[in-house]
Amino acid sequence: MHTPKTIHMKISHFTRLAGLLLVAGFFISCGSSKVNIDQLVADNNYDQALAEIDKRLSEEPGQPDLYITRAEITAEMAQDVEPELRKDHYNQVIADFESSAEMGANDNQLATIDSLKQQYWKTEHNSGLRIFEADNESNVYQTAKSHFENALIIRPNAVSSYQNLAVAEFNLGNIDAAINSLEMAIDSSNDPSAELYETLGYLYLEKGDPETAADYYEMANTDMSEDINLAYGLVNAYISNSNHEAAVSLLENLVEEYPDNANLRNVYGTQLYEITSEIMADLKEAYEDTDASLAEQIKVEAVGMGEEAETQLIEAFKRDTSNTEYLESLAVFYNNLAANYMSVAKVASEDDKSELRSRADRLIEFATDFYGRLSEMDPNNSTYNEKLTTLNKLKNN
Predict the structure, then answer these.
(1) pLDDT tens per residue across span 225-257
(2) pTM for the whole thing?
(3) Closest Cα partner for 331 from 384, 278, 260?
(4) CB atoms within 10 A of CB 171
């Protein structure tokens, strides 16, 4: 009776051992089949690593760390292709970072995401800057543009990247794109800098939209007397938009602040002439309407404005007598104002004809003198010689 029982117990004992060994073998088998993603990455087996991550996420999506790892691998792969081909990579990187957060990434993981974003942004942004410093060929600007576009995928609110992207686009001849980039920069900034508004003003001026250019220059909200470049930009915008009164108002303050700046005085004088010319048109209309009282009032205004324009142009030339531009400004001023007085004299009252013609004759003398100087400096300049011929005919009439 005892022997069978003993035999049964031994069999039972081995059976249990076999069962334990089977279970242990099962776990060993499972453990050895799990792929080491870190090792795959270390071996540059990116595609296999991504496939493994995709597999695990399909089985269990709620693994924030795997999304971060996939983003890191994708960012590494981006560096293996040309800058213009990296957009899809970086879009996937950002998508994975967002998925990680959605799947409950903890504080440490979120901090890792922020750090990686900064790292990837700096890589692309600084690459673009280095290209700017290296060369200025058009193909270089195209590459720099791609770097800044990549940087903005990673950090869509990076104002400096928008600014540099605009520089690349402008140098590639795409002003509209540059304008759009700078407007995006303004939208991305809580406190846009005066530089952003100034640059937009310049771009709109280059585009041929002086009205919008002036708006942006004005939005810079800077003391123009302290920023001469901004002031020049706004003056140019006013002039291009034929807003001579606004230009004169600004130039008056600038000349007072920078009295020895010959260029400012020269531009100021030419703008004062433009206003004088408009006044002369009003004077002609008053004579045509036989409104003697109004004509007298306008005539005094025209004389005063013309004399102020002359003063500023002379002061500019005095400060730099070697500058032919200032000499030519005076010649053109005297010539054009003489033409204005001659035109008005034709319709003026008999009492005023002599005075107006006398002023025209004086201006013709000055114009002849200055065009004569210009012709001596540049004897082959046909424009100067033609002007002298016309002026001499007028003097002899």
Answers:
(1) 778 889 999 999 999 999 999 999 999 999 999
(2) 0.78
(3) 384
(4) 18
